[in-house]
Design goal:
heterodimer, A: about 250 residues, six-stranded mixed sheet, four-stranded antiparallel sheet, 10 strands, globular, B: mainly alpha
Chain lengths: ~250, ~260
Protein backbone atom coordinates (compact mmCIF):
# COMPACT_ATOMS: atom_id res chain seq x y z
CA UNK A 1 0.00 0.00 0.00
CA UNK A 2 2.78 2.47 0.82
CA UNK A 3 6.41 1.38 0.85
CA UNK A 4 7.74 -0.64 -2.04
CA UNK A 5 8.39 -4.27 -1.18
CA UNK A 6 11.69 -5.70 -2.40
CA UNK A 7 9.89 -8.26 -4.53
CA UNK A 8 6.48 -7.20 -5.82
CA UNK A 9 5.49 -10.82 -6.45
CA UNK A 10 6.43 -11.99 -2.96
CA UNK A 11 3.69 -13.29 -0.72
CA UNK A 12 2.66 -10.84 1.99
CA UNK A 13 3.69 -13.33 4.66
CA UNK A 14 5.74 -16.45 4.04
CA UNK A 15 6.57 -18.60 7.04
CA UNK A 16 9.11 -21.41 6.67
CA UNK A 17 9.69 -24.17 9.23
CA UNK A 18 8.94 -21.90 12.19
CA UNK A 19 9.74 -23.24 15.65
CA UNK A 20 9.14 -21.49 18.94
CA UNK A 21 9.89 -22.80 22.42
CA UNK A 22 9.29 -21.26 25.82
CA UNK A 23 12.00 -23.00 27.83
CA UNK A 24 11.35 -26.73 27.50
CA UNK A 25 7.89 -26.18 26.13
CA UNK A 26 7.77 -26.29 22.32
CA UNK A 27 4.78 -24.21 21.28
CA UNK A 28 5.29 -24.14 17.52
CA UNK A 29 6.62 -27.32 15.94
CA UNK A 30 7.57 -26.40 12.40
CA UNK A 31 5.01 -24.19 10.73
CA UNK A 32 4.97 -23.61 6.95
CA UNK A 33 2.43 -21.14 5.84
CA UNK A 34 1.69 -18.35 3.31
CA UNK A 35 -0.59 -15.40 3.17
CA UNK A 36 -0.98 -13.94 -0.30
CA UNK A 37 -1.44 -10.24 -0.94
CA UNK A 38 -4.98 -9.19 -0.15
CA UNK A 39 -5.83 -12.58 1.38
CA UNK A 40 -7.73 -13.06 4.60
CA UNK A 41 -6.49 -16.10 6.50
CA UNK A 42 -8.33 -17.22 9.61
CA UNK A 43 -6.56 -19.38 12.16
CA UNK A 44 -8.68 -21.49 14.48
CA UNK A 45 -7.91 -24.15 17.02
CA UNK A 46 -8.20 -25.05 20.69
CA UNK A 47 -6.55 -22.80 23.26
CA UNK A 48 -2.89 -23.63 23.72
CA UNK A 49 -2.57 -24.74 20.11
CA UNK A 50 -0.03 -21.98 19.39
CA UNK A 51 -2.17 -19.80 17.12
CA UNK A 52 -1.59 -16.56 19.05
CA UNK A 53 2.12 -17.32 19.33
CA UNK A 54 2.25 -17.83 15.56
CA UNK A 55 0.58 -14.46 15.01
CA UNK A 56 2.90 -12.72 17.49
CA UNK A 57 5.94 -14.16 15.74
CA UNK A 58 4.95 -12.37 12.53
CA UNK A 59 5.84 -8.96 14.03
CA UNK A 60 8.36 -10.47 16.44
CA UNK A 61 6.51 -9.70 19.63
CA UNK A 62 7.71 -13.25 20.18
CA UNK A 63 11.21 -14.13 19.01
CA UNK A 64 11.11 -17.29 16.86
CA UNK A 65 13.46 -20.03 18.05
CA UNK A 66 14.24 -21.08 14.49
CA UNK A 67 12.84 -20.83 10.98
CA UNK A 68 12.21 -17.95 8.64
CA UNK A 69 9.46 -15.37 8.40
CA UNK A 70 9.38 -13.34 5.21
CA UNK A 71 7.22 -10.27 5.24
CA UNK A 72 6.94 -8.85 1.74
CA UNK A 73 10.09 -10.73 0.87
CA UNK A 74 12.14 -9.41 3.81
CA UNK A 75 13.34 -11.96 6.36
CA UNK A 76 12.33 -10.36 9.65
CA UNK A 77 14.16 -12.99 11.72
CA UNK A 78 17.42 -11.48 10.43
CA UNK A 79 18.95 -9.69 13.45
CA UNK A 80 20.05 -6.79 11.22
CA UNK A 81 16.52 -5.97 10.11
CA UNK A 82 15.04 -2.73 11.48
CA UNK A 83 12.17 -4.32 13.38
CA UNK A 84 10.51 -1.00 14.23
CA UNK A 85 10.32 -0.21 10.52
CA UNK A 86 8.84 -3.66 9.78
CA UNK A 87 6.30 -3.37 12.62
CA UNK A 88 5.14 0.03 11.43
CA UNK A 89 3.86 -1.66 8.25
CA UNK A 90 2.09 -4.49 10.13
CA UNK A 91 -0.98 -3.39 12.06
CA UNK A 92 -1.88 -5.43 15.11
CA UNK A 93 -5.07 -5.57 17.15
CA UNK A 94 -5.13 -7.31 20.53
CA UNK A 95 -7.69 -9.22 22.55
CA UNK A 96 -7.42 -6.69 25.40
CA UNK A 97 -7.54 -3.61 23.07
CA UNK A 98 -4.43 -2.10 24.72
CA UNK A 99 -5.44 1.47 24.02
CA UNK A 100 -3.25 3.98 25.86
CA UNK A 101 -5.52 4.94 28.78
CA UNK A 102 -3.85 8.30 29.46
CA UNK A 103 -4.54 9.60 25.96
CA UNK A 104 -7.72 10.59 24.16
CA UNK A 105 -8.93 8.45 21.27
CA UNK A 106 -7.48 10.95 18.81
CA UNK A 107 -4.08 11.04 20.52
CA UNK A 108 -4.03 7.23 20.53
CA UNK A 109 -4.27 7.44 16.75
CA UNK A 110 -1.80 10.26 16.16
CA UNK A 111 1.14 9.52 18.47
CA UNK A 112 2.78 6.76 16.41
CA UNK A 113 2.01 8.53 13.13
CA UNK A 114 3.94 11.55 14.31
CA UNK A 115 6.71 9.69 16.06
CA UNK A 116 7.23 6.77 13.66
CA UNK A 117 5.79 7.99 10.35
CA UNK A 118 7.14 11.52 11.02
CA UNK A 119 3.87 13.10 9.96
CA UNK A 120 3.00 16.64 10.94
CA UNK A 121 0.39 17.14 13.64
CA UNK A 122 -2.16 18.37 11.08
CA UNK A 123 -1.58 15.46 8.73
CA UNK A 124 -1.74 12.91 11.57
CA UNK A 125 -5.01 14.39 12.85
CA UNK A 126 -6.48 14.30 9.36
CA UNK A 127 -5.56 10.62 8.89
CA UNK A 128 -6.82 9.81 12.39
CA UNK A 129 -10.19 11.48 11.79
CA UNK A 130 -10.61 9.62 8.52
CA UNK A 131 -10.02 6.31 10.29
CA UNK A 132 -12.26 7.18 13.25
CA UNK A 133 -14.99 7.88 10.74
CA UNK A 134 -14.29 4.57 9.05
CA UNK A 135 -14.91 2.66 12.28
CA UNK A 136 -17.98 4.77 13.03
CA UNK A 137 -16.59 6.73 15.99
CA UNK A 138 -15.90 10.16 14.53
CA UNK A 139 -17.82 11.76 17.39
CA UNK A 140 -15.69 10.17 20.14
CA UNK A 141 -12.26 11.58 19.30
CA UNK A 142 -11.96 13.44 22.63
CA UNK A 143 -13.04 10.49 24.77
CA UNK A 144 -10.61 8.62 26.99
CA UNK A 145 -10.62 4.82 26.59
CA UNK A 146 -12.18 4.33 30.04
CA UNK A 147 -15.26 6.19 28.86
CA UNK A 148 -15.78 3.93 25.86
CA UNK A 149 -17.42 0.51 25.68
CA UNK A 150 -15.31 -2.54 24.88
CA UNK A 151 -16.61 -2.62 21.34
CA UNK A 152 -15.82 1.06 20.84
CA UNK A 153 -12.34 0.61 22.32
CA UNK A 154 -11.65 -2.26 19.98
CA UNK A 155 -12.80 -0.26 16.94
CA UNK A 156 -10.52 2.61 18.04
CA UNK A 157 -7.69 0.08 18.34
CA UNK A 158 -8.35 -1.00 14.74
CA UNK A 159 -8.41 2.65 13.65
CA UNK A 160 -5.11 3.21 15.50
CA UNK A 161 -3.46 0.38 13.56
CA UNK A 162 -4.98 1.60 10.28
CA UNK A 163 -3.67 5.12 10.82
CA UNK A 164 -0.15 3.82 10.17
CA UNK A 165 -1.30 2.82 6.66
CA UNK A 166 -0.17 -0.77 7.21
CA UNK A 167 0.28 -3.25 4.37
CA UNK A 168 -1.30 -6.00 6.44
CA UNK A 169 -3.17 -6.51 9.70
CA UNK A 170 -2.90 -9.09 12.46
CA UNK A 171 -5.96 -9.74 14.64
CA UNK A 172 -5.43 -11.69 17.86
CA UNK A 173 -8.81 -12.93 19.16
CA UNK A 174 -10.08 -9.38 18.95
CA UNK A 175 -13.69 -10.22 19.86
CA UNK A 176 -13.00 -12.69 22.68
CA UNK A 177 -13.06 -10.05 25.45
CA UNK A 178 -16.25 -8.38 24.22
CA UNK A 179 -19.83 -8.71 25.38
CA UNK A 180 -21.77 -10.69 22.76
CA UNK A 181 -23.87 -7.73 21.62
CA UNK A 182 -20.71 -5.70 20.86
CA UNK A 183 -19.02 -8.33 18.69
CA UNK A 184 -21.04 -7.51 15.58
CA UNK A 185 -19.76 -3.91 15.23
CA UNK A 186 -16.14 -5.02 15.39
CA UNK A 187 -16.65 -7.85 12.91
CA UNK A 188 -18.41 -5.43 10.55
CA UNK A 189 -15.35 -3.19 10.51
CA UNK A 190 -13.08 -6.17 9.83
CA UNK A 191 -15.36 -7.36 7.06
CA UNK A 192 -15.27 -3.93 5.44
CA UNK A 193 -11.48 -3.95 5.67
CA UNK A 194 -11.31 -7.36 4.01
CA UNK A 195 -13.58 -6.05 1.26
CA UNK A 196 -11.12 -3.23 0.62
CA UNK A 197 -8.41 -5.79 -0.08
CA UNK A 198 -6.44 -5.61 3.17
CA UNK A 199 -4.16 -8.58 3.82
CA UNK A 200 -5.32 -10.05 7.12
CA UNK A 201 -4.23 -12.79 9.48
CA UNK A 202 -7.05 -13.43 11.93
CA UNK A 203 -6.88 -15.66 15.00
CA UNK A 204 -10.51 -16.15 15.93
CA UNK A 205 -13.24 -18.28 17.42
CA UNK A 206 -15.85 -16.65 15.15
CA UNK A 207 -16.54 -19.48 12.69
CA UNK A 208 -19.24 -17.41 10.99
CA UNK A 209 -16.71 -14.69 10.20
CA UNK A 210 -14.17 -17.25 8.98
CA UNK A 211 -16.73 -18.81 6.66
CA UNK A 212 -18.00 -15.53 5.28
CA UNK A 213 -14.84 -13.44 4.99
CA UNK A 214 -11.90 -15.85 5.02
CA UNK A 215 -10.08 -16.92 1.87
CA UNK A 216 -8.28 -19.63 3.74
CA UNK A 217 -8.93 -21.39 7.03
CA UNK A 218 -6.11 -22.90 9.04
CA UNK A 219 -6.76 -25.35 11.85
CA UNK A 220 -3.95 -25.63 14.39
CA UNK A 221 -3.51 -28.10 17.21
CA UNK A 222 -0.55 -28.77 19.52
CA UNK A 223 1.78 -26.37 17.74
CA UNK A 224 1.23 -27.64 14.21
CA UNK A 225 -1.07 -26.94 11.29
CA UNK A 226 -3.40 -29.92 11.09
CA UNK A 227 -5.51 -28.91 8.14
CA UNK A 228 -6.09 -25.91 5.91
CA UNK A 229 -8.18 -24.97 2.92
CA UNK A 230 -11.16 -22.89 1.79
CA UNK A 231 -13.29 -22.17 4.88
CA UNK A 232 -16.45 -23.65 3.39
CA UNK A 233 -14.71 -26.93 2.70
CA UNK A 234 -12.86 -27.19 6.01
CA UNK A 235 -15.91 -26.25 8.07
CA UNK A 236 -18.42 -28.46 6.30
CA UNK A 237 -16.18 -31.38 5.42
CA UNK A 238 -13.15 -31.58 7.73
CA UNK A 239 -10.73 -34.34 6.74
CA UNK A 240 -8.65 -34.77 9.87
CA UNK A 241 -10.17 -36.41 12.98
CA UNK A 242 -8.80 -33.63 15.25
CA UNK A 243 -10.42 -30.97 13.09
CA UNK A 244 -13.67 -32.93 13.18
CA UNK A 245 -13.48 -33.26 16.96
CA UNK A 246 -12.78 -29.54 17.42
CA UNK A 247 -15.48 -28.36 15.02
CA UNK A 248 -18.09 -30.67 16.52
CA UNK A 249 -17.51 -28.85 19.83
CA UNK A 250 -17.63 -25.27 18.59
CA UNK A 251 -20.22 -25.37 15.79
CA UNK B 1 -30.99 -10.41 74.65
CA UNK B 2 -32.23 -10.77 71.11
CA UNK B 3 -30.60 -7.82 69.40
CA UNK B 4 -30.30 -7.31 65.64
CA UNK B 5 -26.71 -7.11 64.32
CA UNK B 6 -27.32 -3.50 63.27
CA UNK B 7 -28.47 -2.51 66.73
CA UNK B 8 -25.57 -4.28 68.38
CA UNK B 9 -23.09 -2.50 66.09
CA UNK B 10 -24.62 0.89 66.94
CA UNK B 11 -24.52 0.17 70.65
CA UNK B 12 -20.90 -0.95 70.52
CA UNK B 13 -19.92 2.16 68.57
CA UNK B 14 -21.77 4.33 71.07
CA UNK B 15 -19.77 2.81 73.94
CA UNK B 16 -16.51 3.41 72.08
CA UNK B 17 -17.34 7.10 71.51
CA UNK B 18 -18.37 7.56 75.14
CA UNK B 19 -15.15 5.98 76.40
CA UNK B 20 -13.02 8.16 74.15
CA UNK B 21 -14.94 11.25 75.27
CA UNK B 22 -14.38 10.45 78.95
CA UNK B 23 -10.62 9.94 78.44
CA UNK B 24 -10.25 13.25 76.61
CA UNK B 25 -12.31 15.05 79.22
CA UNK B 26 -10.32 13.65 82.15
CA UNK B 27 -7.04 14.53 80.45
CA UNK B 28 -8.27 18.06 79.72
CA UNK B 29 -9.40 18.65 83.29
CA UNK B 30 -6.23 17.23 84.81
CA UNK B 31 -3.84 19.14 82.55
CA UNK B 32 -2.17 22.32 83.72
CA UNK B 33 -3.33 24.59 80.91
CA UNK B 34 -1.63 27.72 82.18
CA UNK B 35 1.76 26.01 82.20
CA UNK B 36 1.16 24.35 78.84
CA UNK B 37 0.29 27.63 77.18
CA UNK B 38 3.14 29.41 78.90
CA UNK B 39 5.85 26.99 77.75
CA UNK B 40 4.52 25.68 74.43
CA UNK B 41 2.70 28.67 72.92
CA UNK B 42 4.24 31.63 74.66
CA UNK B 43 3.20 34.77 72.75
CA UNK B 44 6.30 36.68 73.79
CA UNK B 45 8.50 33.97 72.28
CA UNK B 46 6.37 33.60 69.16
CA UNK B 47 6.83 37.29 68.37
CA UNK B 48 10.60 36.78 68.42
CA UNK B 49 10.35 34.07 65.72
CA UNK B 50 8.56 36.18 63.15
CA UNK B 51 9.38 36.81 60.35
CA UNK B 52 12.57 34.67 60.14
CA UNK B 53 10.66 31.42 60.67
CA UNK B 54 8.92 32.06 57.35
CA UNK B 55 11.40 34.13 55.36
CA UNK B 56 14.39 31.93 56.14
CA UNK B 57 13.52 28.62 57.82
CA UNK B 58 10.31 27.63 56.03
CA UNK B 59 11.67 28.89 52.73
CA UNK B 60 14.88 26.88 53.07
CA UNK B 61 13.06 23.70 54.07
CA UNK B 62 10.95 23.98 50.93
CA UNK B 63 13.99 24.72 48.75
CA UNK B 64 16.11 21.87 50.16
CA UNK B 65 13.23 19.42 49.84
CA UNK B 66 12.38 20.52 46.31
CA UNK B 67 16.01 20.23 45.19
CA UNK B 68 16.49 16.85 46.87
CA UNK B 69 13.21 15.49 45.56
CA UNK B 70 13.86 16.63 41.99
CA UNK B 71 17.31 15.12 41.91
CA UNK B 72 16.07 12.02 43.75
CA UNK B 73 13.20 11.53 41.29
CA UNK B 74 15.53 11.73 38.29
CA UNK B 75 18.01 9.41 39.99
CA UNK B 76 15.23 7.05 41.07
CA UNK B 77 13.88 6.84 37.51
CA UNK B 78 17.36 6.14 36.16
CA UNK B 79 18.00 3.45 38.77
CA UNK B 80 14.57 1.89 38.18
CA UNK B 81 15.19 1.67 34.42
CA UNK B 82 18.64 0.21 35.09
CA UNK B 83 17.14 -2.40 37.41
CA UNK B 84 14.71 -3.42 34.68
CA UNK B 85 17.41 -3.45 32.01
CA UNK B 86 18.33 -6.63 30.20
CA UNK B 87 22.00 -5.64 30.61
CA UNK B 88 23.36 -7.47 33.68
CA UNK B 89 25.95 -4.92 34.88
CA UNK B 90 23.34 -2.14 34.83
CA UNK B 91 21.06 -4.24 37.03
CA UNK B 92 23.82 -5.13 39.46
CA UNK B 93 25.05 -1.54 39.73
CA UNK B 94 21.54 -0.18 40.34
CA UNK B 95 20.79 -2.88 42.91
CA UNK B 96 24.02 -2.05 44.71
CA UNK B 97 23.33 1.69 44.82
CA UNK B 98 19.75 1.16 45.96
CA UNK B 99 20.63 -1.30 48.72
CA UNK B 100 23.50 0.88 49.95
CA UNK B 101 21.72 4.21 50.23
CA UNK B 102 18.41 2.71 51.32
CA UNK B 103 20.12 0.81 54.10
CA UNK B 104 22.06 3.72 55.54
CA UNK B 105 20.47 6.24 57.90
CA UNK B 106 20.06 9.57 56.13
CA UNK B 107 22.18 11.19 58.84
CA UNK B 108 25.14 8.97 57.97
CA UNK B 109 24.85 9.87 54.28
CA UNK B 110 24.81 13.56 55.21
CA UNK B 111 27.87 13.28 57.44
CA UNK B 112 29.66 11.34 54.74
CA UNK B 113 28.98 14.10 52.25
CA UNK B 114 29.67 16.97 54.60
CA UNK B 115 33.01 15.65 55.87
CA UNK B 116 33.94 12.75 53.62
CA UNK B 117 34.02 14.65 50.33
CA UNK B 118 36.25 17.54 51.53
CA UNK B 119 38.59 15.02 53.16
CA UNK B 120 38.78 12.76 50.13
CA UNK B 121 39.11 15.58 47.61
CA UNK B 122 40.92 18.41 49.35
CA UNK B 123 40.69 21.67 47.48
CA UNK B 124 37.47 20.68 45.73
CA UNK B 125 34.10 21.82 46.94
CA UNK B 126 30.66 20.64 45.92
CA UNK B 127 29.37 23.51 43.77
CA UNK B 128 26.55 25.81 44.98
CA UNK B 129 26.98 24.83 48.63
CA UNK B 130 25.07 24.36 50.81
CA UNK B 131 22.54 23.60 48.06
CA UNK B 132 24.88 21.27 46.17
CA UNK B 133 25.62 18.96 49.08
CA UNK B 134 22.02 19.02 50.29
CA UNK B 135 20.69 18.19 46.82
CA UNK B 136 23.04 15.26 46.33
CA UNK B 137 22.76 13.80 49.83
CA UNK B 138 19.00 14.19 50.10
CA UNK B 139 18.59 13.06 46.48
CA UNK B 140 20.62 9.90 47.03
CA UNK B 141 18.59 8.93 50.08
CA UNK B 142 15.26 9.72 48.42
CA UNK B 143 16.30 8.35 45.02
CA UNK B 144 17.20 4.95 46.43
CA UNK B 145 13.71 4.62 47.91
CA UNK B 146 11.93 6.06 44.91
CA UNK B 147 13.78 3.73 42.51
CA UNK B 148 12.01 0.73 43.99
CA UNK B 149 8.65 2.50 43.98
CA UNK B 150 9.08 3.55 40.34
CA UNK B 151 10.20 0.05 39.34
CA UNK B 152 7.08 -1.43 40.94
CA UNK B 153 4.97 1.17 39.11
CA UNK B 154 6.50 0.37 35.74
CA UNK B 155 5.94 -3.34 36.33
CA UNK B 156 2.32 -2.67 37.31
CA UNK B 157 1.54 -1.26 33.85
CA UNK B 158 0.02 -4.10 31.80
CA UNK B 159 2.49 -5.72 29.39
CA UNK B 160 0.03 -5.14 26.54
CA UNK B 161 0.75 -1.41 26.67
CA UNK B 162 4.39 -1.88 25.72
CA UNK B 163 3.39 -4.47 23.10
CA UNK B 164 0.81 -2.18 21.53
CA UNK B 165 3.33 0.67 21.34
CA UNK B 166 6.02 -1.59 19.87
CA UNK B 167 3.55 -3.07 17.37
CA UNK B 168 3.02 0.47 16.04
CA UNK B 169 6.75 0.70 15.38
CA UNK B 170 7.76 2.80 18.38
CA UNK B 171 11.22 2.14 19.79
CA UNK B 172 11.53 0.62 23.25
CA UNK B 173 12.78 3.90 24.72
CA UNK B 174 10.04 6.00 23.19
CA UNK B 175 7.34 3.51 24.21
CA UNK B 176 8.74 3.55 27.74
CA UNK B 177 8.70 7.32 28.07
CA UNK B 178 5.46 8.14 26.26
CA UNK B 179 3.29 5.15 27.14
CA UNK B 180 4.55 3.16 30.14
CA UNK B 181 6.14 5.72 32.47
CA UNK B 182 3.22 8.21 32.44
CA UNK B 183 0.91 5.37 33.51
CA UNK B 184 3.41 4.14 36.09
CA UNK B 185 3.53 7.58 37.72
CA UNK B 186 -0.24 7.66 38.06
CA UNK B 187 -0.12 4.35 39.86
CA UNK B 188 2.65 5.42 42.24
CA UNK B 189 1.44 8.93 43.00
CA UNK B 190 0.42 8.05 46.60
CA UNK B 191 3.72 6.36 47.59
CA UNK B 192 5.69 9.15 45.88
CA UNK B 193 3.84 11.72 47.99
CA UNK B 194 4.82 9.71 51.01
CA UNK B 195 8.41 9.93 49.86
CA UNK B 196 8.19 13.69 49.40
CA UNK B 197 6.81 14.13 52.92
CA UNK B 198 9.54 11.92 54.38
CA UNK B 199 12.11 13.96 52.48
CA UNK B 200 10.64 17.19 53.87
CA UNK B 201 11.42 15.90 57.32
CA UNK B 202 14.79 14.40 56.35
CA UNK B 203 15.81 17.86 55.14
CA UNK B 204 16.13 18.71 58.86
CA UNK B 205 19.35 16.66 58.84
CA UNK B 206 21.19 19.23 56.76
CA UNK B 207 22.36 20.89 59.97
CA UNK B 208 25.30 18.47 59.97
CA UNK B 209 26.58 20.21 56.85
CA UNK B 210 27.36 23.17 59.12
CA UNK B 211 25.04 25.87 57.91
CA UNK B 212 25.25 29.59 58.37
CA UNK B 213 22.30 31.34 60.02
CA UNK B 214 20.63 32.38 56.80
CA UNK B 215 20.79 28.80 55.49
CA UNK B 216 18.86 27.41 58.46
CA UNK B 217 15.89 25.27 57.67
CA UNK B 218 13.04 24.76 60.12
CA UNK B 219 14.59 22.28 62.52
CA UNK B 220 17.95 24.05 62.67
CA UNK B 221 16.14 27.31 63.24
CA UNK B 222 14.02 25.72 65.97
CA UNK B 223 17.02 24.27 67.79
CA UNK B 224 18.77 27.61 67.68
CA UNK B 225 15.73 29.48 68.97
CA UNK B 226 15.24 26.84 71.66
CA UNK B 227 18.68 27.62 73.06
CA UNK B 228 18.68 31.40 72.74
CA UNK B 229 15.10 31.97 73.94
CA UNK B 230 15.07 29.16 76.53
CA UNK B 231 11.58 28.00 75.62
CA UNK B 232 9.96 25.05 73.84
CA UNK B 233 7.60 27.38 72.00
CA UNK B 234 9.87 27.49 68.89
CA UNK B 235 9.34 23.73 68.52
CA UNK B 236 5.57 24.22 68.49
CA UNK B 237 6.04 26.92 65.87
CA UNK B 238 8.20 24.82 63.56
CA UNK B 239 5.85 21.88 64.05
CA UNK B 240 3.01 24.02 62.74
CA UNK B 241 5.28 25.22 59.92
CA UNK B 242 6.03 21.63 58.84
CA UNK B 243 2.31 20.88 58.78
CA UNK B 244 1.81 24.01 56.67
CA UNK B 245 3.96 22.29 54.04
CA UNK B 246 2.78 18.69 54.29
CA UNK B 247 -0.98 19.08 54.76
CA UNK B 248 -1.57 21.25 51.64
CA UNK B 249 0.69 18.85 49.75
CA UNK B 250 -1.50 15.90 50.73
CA UNK B 251 -4.62 17.80 49.71
CA UNK B 252 -3.19 18.69 46.28
CA UNK B 253 -2.18 15.09 45.65
CA UNK B 254 -5.58 13.78 46.74
CA UNK B 255 -7.16 16.12 44.20
CA UNK B 256 -4.78 14.90 41.50
CA UNK B 257 -5.64 11.30 42.33
CA UNK B 258 -9.36 12.01 42.13
CA UNK B 259 -8.86 13.70 38.77
CA UNK B 260 -6.84 10.85 37.28
CA UNK B 261 -9.36 8.35 38.67
CA UNK B 262 -12.04 10.14 36.68
CA UNK B 263 -9.95 10.00 33.48
CA UNK B 264 -9.42 6.27 33.63
Amino acid sequence: MTTTPTDPNAAAIDIQDLHKSFGQNEVLKGIDFHVGNGQVVCIVGPSGSGKSTLLRCVNRLEEPTSGKILVEGIDITDPDVDIDQVRSRIGMVFQQFNLFPHMTALRNLTIAQQRVRKRSQDEAVEVARRNLEKVGLADREDAYPAHLSGGQQQRIAIARALSMDPDMMLFDEVTSALDPELVGDVLAVMKQLAGEGMTMMVVTHEMGFAREVGDNLVFMDEGAIVEQGPPMRVLSDPQHPRTQAFLSKVL
Amino acid sequence: MAMSPGKRARLSRGIQYALLGVIVLVAAVQANWRLILDSFVNPAVLVELVPEIFTIALKNTVIYTALGFTFGLALGLLLALMRLSSVGPYRWFATGVIEFFRGLPALVVFIFFAFGIPTAFPGYAVPFDPYGTVTIALGLVGGAYMAETIRAGIQAVPKGQMEAARSLGMSHTWAMFSVVIPQAFRIILPPLTNELILLTKDSSLVYVVGLSLDSYELTGFGRDALNTLVSVTPLTAIGVAYLMITVPLSIVVRRMEARSARAR
